Amino acid sequence: MHYDTSSKQVHFELIAAKNANNNGYNYNGYYQNAVTLKVPAGWIISITFINRDANAPHSIVLTPAFSQNDIPDEQTGEFAIINRAYTEVLHANEQETISFPAKEGRYWLFCGVKRHGIDGMWIPLTVERDLQIPALHFRQ
Ligand SMILES: [Cu+2]
């Protein structure tokens, strides 16, 4: 994570299948609630997404924070909850950078490929009004 408080921009690099956790269905090794990205409201978020998985395509779609029973089977970019907050489905060693405004709310960064989200390939992103700088919160 890199950020600049004067321009209010934060950049994250997220790597699919960074390690073998959750059979590679992870972002930087994290899945489900293992890490939460926190960003102050009004900032600009950019994400460089890289797929290191030789066996499966992956994507990122910004979705609402689902309850466990409502996790969709798959999700395409047109359902992203903020404009432009999604990547294409990337194959092995492809990468894409996206950028979108941080509007207050609780979201997931969600892999839209069929069954990946249900299988745990998502991490929370929260945008908070009273936060001063971006932060990562790791579940104990
Ligand atoms: Cu995936």
What does it look like?
The protein is mostly beta strands and 140 residues long. It has a single domain, classed as Immunoglobulin-like, CATH 2.60.40. 0% of the residues lie in helices and 38% in strands. The strands form two sheets. Strands 5-7-8-3-9 form a five-stranded mixed β-sheet, with no helix packed on it. Strand 1 (2-4) and strand 2 (9-16) form a beta hairpin. The protein is globular. The two termini are 20 Å apart. The mean pLDDT is 97. Copper (II) ion binds next to loops.
Looking at the overall shape, the CATH architecture is Sandwich
Proportion of beta-strand residues: 35-45%
Number of helices: 0
Q: How far apart, in Å, are the first and last alpha carbons?
A: 20 Å
* Number of self-contained structural domains: 1
Helix coverage percent of residues? under 10%
- Approximate shape: globular
Task: Give a quick rundown of the structure.
0% of the residues lie in helices and 38% in strands. The protein is mostly beta strands. It has a single domain (2-138), classed as Sandwich (Immunoglobulin-like).
